[in-house]
Design goal:
The protein is mainly alpha-helical. 74% of the residues lie in helices and 4% in strands.
């Protein structure tokens, strides 16, 4: 039973691949979001910032490149928060009762769902990056092949840690809720604060003090910062603002995501230990 979580993982991935409509929508939707919203907003922001003087010696990127990291992070957030929904359907259809009554440790259910959701996030992030490059997103500009590979590894590490945290949170919510409508309402309520108090779409420098404080502890902010560090660089300007990231700051951001994932795992483990499915 030490590898029992692989059964949960494989079952969820098969369901993801075989539901062609779900597979198509989950891959195409974020790409279309980047294409329509990203290009439209990029044209407006680039027009507004065209008169701003360039910062000497600093690489300047357009808004489409700036928002590219935000779209990857946003898609990872939505995918991860809705990743636990499969557990709620299993519970309502009676499949969860069979799983919980088997010798499989309950912790393996959490791990299996977490790994499958993380794999989906990896696939979506890759699709967005490829599609973004075709649209003109300037990721990895001036990088060597080795630097690109290292940067891709760094991005996937950040996405993996972030997605696990929210997948564990989603699993805890799913095993607690009784109806898909109730879970959808809770998840929708959660996505707004995380998304709009982050740096995914715009700088947080002009936020009110309270929102700036919330932004610094928002896991989504740390994910976006990590993606921009690896995909764009440690020193660049966008929308007339200079952004600098040190290795220490990026490492702290990664530790924050790991800590968040650990806390959410403990919460999910506690909820699964208390649940009784009849």
């Amino acid at each position: 039973m030490r590898t029992g979580f692989l059964t949960i993982y494989w079952r969820d991935m098969l369901r993801f691949v075989r539901f062609r409509t779900l597979l198509f929508a989950s891959l195409v939707q974020p790409a279309l979001w980047l294409a329509f919203f990203g290009i439209a907003m990029s044209n407006n922001f680039d027009r507004l910032t065209a008169t701003l003087p360039a910062i000497p010696g600093i690489m300047s990127v357009d808004y489409l490149t700036f928002i590219g990291a935000g779209v990857i992070a946003m898609t990872t957030l939505f995918t991860s928060l809705f990743g636990g929904t499969v557990l709620l359907f299993d519970k309502n259809w009676g499949l969860m009762r069979e799983t919980l009554s088997s010798p499989l440790p309950r912790i393996h259910i959490i791990i299996g769902i977490g790994l499958s959701g993380m794999t989906k996030s990896f696939i979506q992030a890759a699709v967005i990056m490829i599609f973004g490059l075709l649209l003109g997103v300037r990721f990895f500009e001036g990088y060597t092949l080795t630097q690109i590979l290292v940067s891709l590894l760094g991005i996937m590490l950040f996405i993996g840690a972030f997605s696990l945290g929210f997948l564990f949170l989603s699993a805890a919510i799913a095993i607690t809720m009784e109806s898909p409508e109730g879970m959808q309402a809770v998840i929708t309520l959660l996505t707004m604060p995380f998304f709009f108090t982050s740096n995914a779409l715009y700088p947080v420098n002009s936020f009110p003090p309270l929102l700036q404080a919330l932004s610094t502890i928002n896991p989504l902010t740390h994910l976006v910062s990590g993606i921009r560090y690896f995909a764009i660089g440690s020193d660049f300007s966008a929308i007339g603002i200079r952004y600098t990231y040190t290795q220490g700051e990026v490492f702290v951001s990664f530790l924050v995501l790991l800590a968040f994932a650990g806390i959410m795992f403990l919460i999910a483990k506690w909820r699964f230990s208390k649940v009784t499915v009849t």
